[in-house]
Write a structure and sequence with these properties.
The protein has 86 residues and is mainly α. The protein contains 4 helices and 3 strands. Strand 2 and strand 3 form a beta hairpin.
Length: 86
Amino acid sequence: MSSIVFKIRKELAQGISSISGVEFEKIIQAVERPKNTEHGDFAFPAFLLAKTWGLPPAACAERLCREMPLPSGVEAAKAIGPFANF
């Protein structure tokens, strides 16, 4: 993994962790590269937030994309089903 990919993945995980209250280690393990590259460069399955936030995963992904400040180098966030895509 290139250093820039690792840096952005880490910053996304820190942002998600700070907004969600879920441990950083659980979040960083879940940040992945989407199978469909048209969705973005990174994806986060919001299933991890459903119990904490008491919302369906798709609603968690929407909330996360709306509320999370984007790290440098990340242009946009878009919820697609239960995934937050960056």
